[in-house]
Amino acid sequence: MAKERCFQLDARKLFFMLSLAVFFLSLCILLSDPGQVVEYWSAQPSVHPVTQLYRNKNASANMLTNASLDESTGAPAGATSTDATDMELTATRRLPQALIIGVKKGGTRALLEFLRLHPDVRAAGSEPHFFDRHYDRGLDWYRSLMPKALDGQIVMEKTPRYFVSADSPARVHAMSRDVKLIVVVRDPITRAISDYTQIVSKTPSVASFESLSFRNGSTGAEVNPRWSPLWIGLYARHLERWLAYFPSAQMHFVHGERLVTDPAGEMARVQDFLGLERIVTDKHFYFNQTKGFPCLKKLEGSSQPHCLGRTKGRAHPQIQDGVIRRLSEFYRPHNLRFYEMVGQDFGWQ
Ligand SMILES: Nc1ncnc2c1ncn2[C@@H]1O[C@H](COP(=O)(O)OS(=O)(=O)O)[C@@H](OP(=O)(O)O)[C@H]1O
Predict the structure, then answer these.
(1) Which domains does the chain have, with CATH numbers?
(2) Among 99, 104, 105, 132, which is best to mutate for testing ligand 1, by the most ligand atoms less than 8 A from CB?
(3) d(CA 177, CA 171)
(4) What Enzyme Commission number(s) apply to this enzyme (predicted)?
(5) 212 to each of 161, 203, 216, 328, how far by Cα in Å?
(6) Tens of pLDDT along 251-288?
(7) What is the DSSP letter of 92?
């Protein structure tokens, strides 16, 4: 009897010591690299279904774009039927979960093209202008413009005019209070010159930038904030209307200048904001000296590099220094207010 009790005590002691050893061993691993544990848990929920297929197919040498998604199923071209059944790949047309709402001439086309490289993004190619111009056509019409997408893929579109359209915030909110909003912003003066360059390309007889920027056409007069290329750059005013409907955490601001100098860095932040795995990286870009802009190393189905078209990255006219100075003074308080509202200094002088 006493022998049996003694054996039970020894077993308990052994169990206790083993537990202690396991506990200390775990503690050592955790202390030597706590990041691993955090990284593991934070990495788990963000893998979207097509990203998983993309990984499985190891597409690193075979970059997958929206164009390579089968139009009828929405699955990546080349995915087998077993992949499709396993993942219940049934593509449907859905309303967007994310919108690039502005700003005109900010770099919105570049951003959309870069995002389209991501296997979990499906984007409409042209600008629907639903919330600003075609709202009376209804949500079914709008939905019909969207590409087919799988569950878990993010559907998006870009219409830069939404940012400055008075009706858009309420209408977007009526469609979805959870939609994610992206705004590409650029120095409002360069943006205005870019806008003006586009106007001249369509109407060469238009008055000079200098005369249109001031109330009576003379640089001695007040800046004319009603001239559309200048009015669009009053970012804080336009943003106010959006913040009446959406919390700032639901909006992401892309630094337009950095989208040119560091596209991969800006893309990392956008992918994080959209809850996507960082698949679009510096591997996808190269700087094209002739164009003066980053371009894509290759598009799907082609081994050729791809730059945006000729209407993106036009040469700007030279604007008088005095006019630039006056516009800087004009925009300074608006820019500072905008920085405060978004909690980010964009560094425009
Ligand atoms: N990678 C790359 N390639 C070419 N262009 C680039 C790129 N990244 C940003 N940009 C800048 O995008 C500006 C055009 O902006 P948007 O696409 O928003 O214009 S639009 O509102 O859709 O007309 C365009 O303005 P301009 O330079 O005035 O033409 C570019 O400066």
Answers:
(1) 68-342 (3.40.50.300)
(2) 105
(3) 10
(4) 2.8.2.-
(5) 21, 14, 8, 16
(6) 999 999 999 999 999 999 999 999 999 999 999 999 99
(7) E
